[in-house]
TrEMBL record:
One of its GO terms (molecular function) is ornithine carbamoyltransferase activity. Residues 10-148 form the Aspartate/ornithine carbamoyltransferase carbamoyl-P binding domain. Belongs to the aspartate/ornithine carbamoyltransferase superfamily. OTCase family. This is Ornithine transcarbamylase, mitochondrial. Homotrimer. The keyword Iron-sulfur does not apply. Its EC number is 2.1.3.3. Catalyzes the second step of the urea cycle, the condensation of carbamoyl phosphate with L-ornithine to form L-citrulline. The urea cycle ensures the detoxification of ammonia by converting it to urea for excretion. Keywords: Amino-acid biosynthesis, Arginine biosynthesis, Transferase, Urea cycle. It comes from Cercocebus atys (Sooty mangabey). SUPFAM superfamilies: Aspartate/ornithine carbamoyltransferase. One of its GO terms (cellular component) is mitochondrion.
Length: 321
């Protein structure tokens, strides 16, 4: 098994990583979950390391809920976390200052370009906690959840039903690298970014996978192994709420949606969920993997930090992706 070396890298988008490198992060996630959760080991891989966290957006309860629980595991490996918020976007100064004070930075920002600038000016690993264009750490948690459930990712068909947002973009930048097919339905006017689509088409061609983009939710769900949706109204889009709710009529994931999916269908949602996005029957069904998915955020973000800051090699046997 050839060792993948990610120490010192940034995680800005999965576009920058090969399939083997993403698989390595998932393998490391499974390894840490097994050693810490199942075996009860204490693994101070990042002792005396510090993580800076930047929130350019306001910090509502859901951010504390989502990001706080994910980064809490950083301390379990011996590190410590410092938190800051910023409204003034001077990423040149931030990059230099934080490089002298912390060992890595996780940032949730509005613009991907600001994150790119931060990474360019910093001399430490920068992790994309969320931007307008990508949300890579969420997709790693999704893939680990599917790996655990299906034992292999290759050949799965992912059915996205919702907004053409940062999570869909991250799936588009990575699914084909695992041999997964993607069928995505978005309302007219809410399609994924054209530059992301162009690259996703290239990945699908290179890996022999199917990429379907449609405005019909049932067409996207047809034969899908995994039904996936997300919030229709992200932070910063509150003023668009009425318009978006009208545009997304018919996009709620229900058992009617599941009827056209594959017989082994499952459901993912990165939370917090609203009833108009998915009804209770699907959300709380035995097919719903949302709670394992939520837990796996902490194992995958922990693996990202360990992989970017250390030379650790997983001890657990490599999964069959």
């Amino acid at each position: 098994q050839n060792k993948v070396q990610l120490k010192g890298c940034d995680l800005l988008t999965l576009k920058n990583f090969t399939g083997e490198e993403i698989k390595y992060m998932l393998w490391l996630s499974a390894d840490l979950k097994f050693r810490i959760k199942q075996k009860g080991e204490y693994l101070p891989f990042i002792a005396r390391k510090s993580l800076g966290m930047i929130f350019e957006k306001k910090i509502p309860e859901q951010i504390v809920y989502r990001t706080g629980k994910s980064t809490a595991k950083f301390t379990l490996c011996g590190g410590f976390v410092c938190l800051t918020t910023t409204k003034k976007k001077n990423h040149f100064l931030l990059g230099h200052v934080l490089s002298s004070m912390t060992d890595a930075v996780l940032a949730r920002v509005y613009k991907q370009s600001d994150l790119d600038t931060l990474a360019k000016e910093a001399s430490i690993p920068i992790i994309n906690g969320l931007s307008d264009l990508y949300h890579p750490i969420q997709i790693l948690a999704d893939y680990l959840t599917l790996q655990e459930h299906y034992s292999s990712l290759k050949g799965l068909t992912l059915s996205w039903i919702g907004d053409g947002n940062n999570i869909l973009h991250s799936i588009m930048m990575s699914a084909a690298k695992f041999g997964m097919h993607l069928q995505a339905a978005t309302p007219k006017g809410y399609e994924p970014d054209p530059s992301v689509t162009k690259l996703a088409e290239q990945y699908a061609k290179e890996n022999g996978t199917k990429l379907l983009l449609t405005n019909d939710p049932l067409e996207a769900a047809h034969g899908g192994n995994v039904l996936i949706t997300d919030t229709w109204i992200s932070m910063g889009q509150e003023e668009e709420k009425k318009k978006r709710l009208q545009a997304f009529q018919g996009y709620q994931v229900t058992m009617k949606t599941a009827k056209v999916a594959a017989s082994d269908w499952t459901f993912l949602h990165c939370l917090p969920r609203k009833p108009e996005e998915v009804d209770d029957e699907v959300f709380y069904s035995p097919r719903s993997l949302v709670f394992p998915e939520a837990e796996n955020r902490k194992w995958t973000i922990m693996a990202v930090m360990v992989s970017l800051l250390t030379d650790y090699s997983p001890q657990l046997q490599k999964p069959k992706f």
